[in-house]
Write a structure and sequence with these properties.
The complex is a heterodimer. Chain A is α/β, with parallel strands linked by helices. Chain A contains 14 helices and twelve strands. Chain A folds into two domains: about 250 residues, Type I PLP-dependent aspartate aminotransferase-like (Major domain) (Aspartate Aminotransferase, domain 2, 3-Layer(aba) Sandwich); about 130 residues, Aspartate Aminotransferase, domain 1, CATH 3.90.1150.10. Chain A is about 35% helix and about 10% strand. A seven-stranded mixed β-sheet of chain A has the order 1-7-6-5-4-2-3, sandwiched between helices. A three-stranded antiparallel β-sheet of chain A has the order 10-12-11, with helices on one face. In chain A, strands 8-9 form a two-stranded antiparallel sheet. The model of chain A has no long low-confidence stretch (mean pLDDT about 95). By secondary structure, chain B is of the alpha/beta class. In chain B, the strands form four sheets. A seven-stranded mixed β-sheet of chain B has the order 2-8-7-6-5-3-4, with helices on both faces. A four-stranded antiparallel β-sheet of chain B has the order 11-12-15-14, with helices on one face. Chain B has a two-stranded parallel sheet with strand order 1-13. Chain B starts with 7 loop residues before the first helix and ends with a helix. Chain B folds into two domains: about 120 residues, Aspartate Aminotransferase, domain 1, CATH 3.90.1150.10; about 260 residues, Aspartate Aminotransferase, domain 2 (3-Layer(aba) Sandwich). The mean pLDDT of chain B is about 95. Classes of the chains: A alpha/beta, B alpha/beta. Chains A and B meet through α2, α3, α4, α5 and α6 of A and α1, α2, α3, α4 and α5 of B.
Chain lengths: ~475, ~450
């Protein structure tokens, strides 16, 4: 297994769809017309949209070639920090494609949807058990949507108590979506800095927490991959002033079976099923962002909710304090099926092992590369570790150059330039599904690149060299946007 | 566990490097009092084969496991999905990739979504379309926010009472905390939004109208555009049935400023209502106000054409609290699915399928009217319409599900209490003449 996985190969060109179009072709088997044509008034009809005209093979080749220009988890190691690019089990896809699920219309009535409702109900229970909360909604369609739900719940809680608040505390190690979610509720973000060791200090929270502050948004483990060990003290400070603690559970993959956020003083938490619970990212969604809450916040959860009565399940909308509806139907059910399959395949022990091995893999990368790349916070990490390009600066090599060169070695680069608290961040999250051999190859590639940085920096500046396109002009793309062909 | 590759030896070797003596020691940085004492109360793990049994048991307790006849739409539509679509979209290079942050190894996603944006603008007659949103309801809520934020004086948005009921609820959820309000525009006895009612509405930042509306009727968007122009506010058009624009004039041709729609009809399975596909498009003037991702064309250092994520300065990871929205991941894979669908049906196919939807709906309406149903509204519709049912239909409808696996319309009364005994029917290309004749016979 010493052979380098990245290599140049035959890469096909493929034109844009409409450049392949030929008038008169159609790749769809058109259903037989068995009733009379019903003509609409001409004033209502338009010309048929100018869609490409292709044969079925044209379509098959087009998308097969496009797919070959993409890198996915199935292509190779994808250590994108904060994104948890673990293996997406194939059986999950089989389960979601079952006719009884995929063919289900959302409005046929509870009586005819018992399987779907039972799955939703069970998954809510399992996620509550994993996180240590009392109630869960699966409705939010993505992590950021879950964050919005969480913020709306905090907003509704304060509204109900009679006095709305105007601010929310957000540490510098928070996810980028946190301030945007808070501002949708009209909360002003109060940014605070983590302490010297990358961990939030209770004093920093106490200094800004007051009775006009709705609460705090904490990511734990944080985006430096460190566990916020003062979380309980921080929660106490926030609670003592009547605030609530929002937990961003994007990094839950580090702590399953070890820590239950619901036991730490966190009041509301969102999860990303497309991170911790193995549903595919799909090139940017669809994901799912369930929200878990403590008992006192349950009345505020979005509607509809699924309720079990003896052995039957139904949707209930009658919750006067609810934040309302967040999705047209009940969220990304197709994604929920995959997470449910994953949890049942893993069991409690499997999930707990996954977290342990995720943390082992990250610490192994950290220890193996800390002489090669600078490690700003040299502490035991959780599921990810954050380096930067400090050592390479003397050769004028940046994190970007190293990331691009990794592509030539056959790896997807880590997350770069995030979190913002580390300048030139290079954030590695291997996940538990990568084997020692694959991680060793990655480590060797980074070491080889660091060597190239010293010996042949020009090569890195030009990287990637083996990909279909080289570095793209993003400035020109933004200056003169061309968003359609 | 087959997803976890570590052997006992691997773990020992790796722990030597990390300096711990056991996996548990890796968590020493977490204070003991914060660690849980309780195990996770979830069922024991299932083998792949046990999982198959369990999942089929669940799936088969949904009626959808049988071949059923679907005469309901209301935001989720039964359309044929050619085999090539699930086949191609299952390619794991599409499915297991992340957001295309590294364009050099993401050209597949990027070109595919660029083509998607292009075909959506063509379908809707708009200048720009985003790389997708969660669903129509959330896209419409974002569009409402754009109108409200742009207008410094008004804090209300006028929303047609014939916008999908769930979508109106979502708008309320999104805009309420910021102090904005919805004013509902009533509907006329023709089952159309009452444009005249807008004349007296003050302090509104925009008008949101769905066409075809929730009753299936085709709205006169031109009249709403004229009203919006008079008031110098934005017109937001929405829709739940994307295939309508294979036949109907698109919202862009009436001058809509923003369009929010549902793309589930474009090759995406119903899946109990999600994930669907939120479509969001606008005029050039609205480009920088639209939330979510855009793919743009550019060139690489060799001058070769390529695609990148662009206009990121509007987005949450750069603008943080000043971002136009908090949206991060969208429904990318479903956008790609819709693109494959649009490429598959093409110009000829989309026209024919749209026309067939209309043909079948008209045939269904006539057939039911001949079976003692009454027409509720006498205006043009696409593939959905409202009928007043004869007495006793509700019981008949329940027995049709159990006996014939047929879903004969949706009761409108829970959404519109004044419409007692009124049902919303839908017909698509998946229903044959025989299916329709059969239903008409059953309900006679």
């Amino acid at each position: 297994m010493n052979q380098q996985s990245g290599t140049s190969g035959l890469i096909f060109n493929e034109p844009l769809l409409w450049d392949k179009s030929c008038k008169g072709r159609c790749a769809m088997s058109l259903p037989r017309q068995d009733v009379d044509r019903a003509e609409l008034d001409e004033s209502l009809t338009g010309d048929a949209p100018e869609l490409p005209q292709l044969s079925e093979l044209d379509v098959a080749r087009h998308y097969t070639r496009l797919s070959q220009w993409n890198f996915g988890v199935d292509s190779g190691m994808y250590p994108l920090g904060s994104c948890t690019m673990k293996y997406n089990p194939k059986t999950n896809e089989v389960q979601a494609a079952r006719q009884g699920f995929a063919g289900a219309h959302p409005l046929v009535g509870d009586e005819f949807s018992q399987g779907a409702l039972k799955l939703v109900f069970n998954l809510e229970q399992y996620l509550a058990a994993i996180t240590g909360f009392d109630a869960v909604t699966l409705q939010p369609a993505a992590g950021a949507h879950g964050e919005l739900a969480g913020m709306l719940i905090i907003y509704a809680y304060h509204a109900k108590s009679g006095k709305q608040r105007s601010k929310i505390i957000i540490p510098d190690t928070a996810h980028g979506t946190n301030p945007a979610s808070a501002s949708l509720c009209g909360y002003e973000s109060i940014n605070i800095q983590s302490g010297e060791n990358g961990i939030l200090e209770p004093e920093a929270v106490a200094a800004v927490m007051d009775e006009d502050t709705a609460g705090i948004m904490v990511t734990n483990p944080n985006t430096l991959g460190l566990f916020e060990s003062n979380i309980k003290e921080i929660a106490d400070i926030v609670h003592s002033k009547g605030g609530l603690v929002y937990g961003d559970g994007a990094n839950m993959n580090a702590i399953m079976g070890v820590v239950k956020p619901g036991e730490l003083g966190i009041d509301v938490l969102h999860l990303n099923l497309h991170k911790t619970f193995s549903t595919p990212h799909g090139g940017g969604g669809p994901g799912a962002g369930p929200v878990a809450v403590v008992k006192s916040l349950e009345p505020f959860l979005p509607i509809p909710r699924v309720v079990k009565n003896l052995d039957s399940y139904k949707f209930v909308t009658d919750y006067p304090d609810t934040i309302g509806r967040l999705h047209t139907f009940y969220g990304h059910f197709g994604v929920l099926i995959k997470a449910y399959s994953y949890i049942l395949s893993m069991g409690a022990k499997g999930l707990s092992d996954a977290s342990k091995l995720a943390v082992l893999n990250a610490n192994y990368v950290k220890e193996s590369l800390k002489g090669t790349l600078n490690l700003p916070y040299d502490l035991p990490c959780m599921h990810e570790c954050v380096f930067n390009d400090e050592f390479q600066k003397k050769d004028h090599i940046t994190t970007m150059d190293m990331a691009k060169r990794l592509l030539d070695y056959g790896f997807h680069p880590p997350t770069i330039y995030f979190p913002l608290v580390v300048e030139g961040a290079f954030m590695v999250e291997p996940t538990e599904t990568e084997s020692k051999e694959d991680i060793d190859q990655f480590i060797n590639a980074v070491k080889a690149i660091a060597k190239e940085a010293r010996e042949n920096p020009e090569k890195l500046k030009k990287a990637p060299l083996l990909t279909k396109v080289t570095r793209l002009d993003e400035v020109a793309a933004a200056r003169k946007p061309c968003l359609r062909g | 566990m087959r997803y976890l590759p570590h052997t006992k030896e691997d773990i020992e070797d790796m722990l030597k490097v990390t300096g711990q003596s056991s996996l548990e020691d890796l968590f020493n940085c977490i204070p003991d009092n914060l660690k849980t004492k309780k195990s996770m109360d979830i069922p024991q793990s299932l083998s792949e084969w046990e999982l198959n049994v369990h999942m089929e048991e669940l799936a088969s307790s949904n009626i959808a496991c049988k071949e059923y006849k679907c005469f309901i739409g209301a935001g989720s539509y039964d359309h044929y999905i050619p085999a090539i679509i699930p086949y191609l979209i299952s390619r794991s290079e599409f499915m297991t990739a992340y957001t295309p942050y590294q364009p050099e190894v993401s050209q597949g996603t990027l070109q595919g979504i660029y083509e998607f944006q292009t075909m959506v603008t063509e379908l809707l007659g708009m200048d720009v379309a985003t790389a997708s949103h969660y669903d129509c309801g959330t896209a419409l809520a974002e569009a409402a926010l754009i109108a409200l934020r742009k207008n410094r004086k008004a804090n209300k948005i006028a929303v047609s009472s014939l916008v999908h009921p769930s979508h109106r609820q979502i708008i309320h959820t999104y805009i309420n905390p910021a102090g904005y309000e919805i004013i509902e525009i009533p509907y006329t006895k023709d089952g159309l939004t009452d444009v005249g009612a807008l004349e007296d509405m003050d302090d509104i930042a925009g008008i949101a109208v769905q066409s075809p509306n929730f009753f299936g009727n085709i709205e006169d968007l031109k009249a709403f555009k004229d009203m919006a122009d008079t008031k110098k506010i934005l017109l937001i058009a929405s829709f739940t049935e994307a295939l309508a624009f294979g036949l109907l004039k698109n919202p862009g041709s009436f001058g809509a400023d923003l369009v929010a729609g549902e793309g589930q009809s474009l090759g995406i399975s119903k899946s109990f209502g999600g994930p669907g596909l939120g479509l969001l498009a606008g005029t050039k003037q609205q480009m920088r106000n639209l939330p979510g991702r855009f793919i743009g064309k550019t060139s690489d250092t060799n001058g070769d054409e390529g695609f990148v994520l662009t206009l990121a300065t509007r987005e949450q990871h750069i603008r943080r609290e000043k971002a136009s929205s908090n949206i991060c991941s969208n429904n990318g894979l479903n956008a790609m699915t819709a693109a494959i669908y649009l490429a598959t049906v093409g110009k000829i196919g989309i026209r024919e399928i749209a026309q067939q939807n209309h043909d079948k709906a008209v045939y269904l309406k006539i057939s039911l009217e001949n079976s003692s149903f009454e027409s509720a509204f006498d205006v043009p519709f696409f593939n959905e319409f409202v009928l007043k049912a004869p007495a006793g239909f509700e019981q008949k409808r329940a027995s049709l599900v159990n006996d014939k696996c047929t879903f004969a319309g949706m009761n409108l009364e829970p959404f519109y209490p004044e419409l007692k005994q009124h049902y919303l029917f839908c017909a698509t290309e998946t229903l044959s003449k025989e299916d329709i004749d059969q239903l008409a016979k059953e309900v006679q």
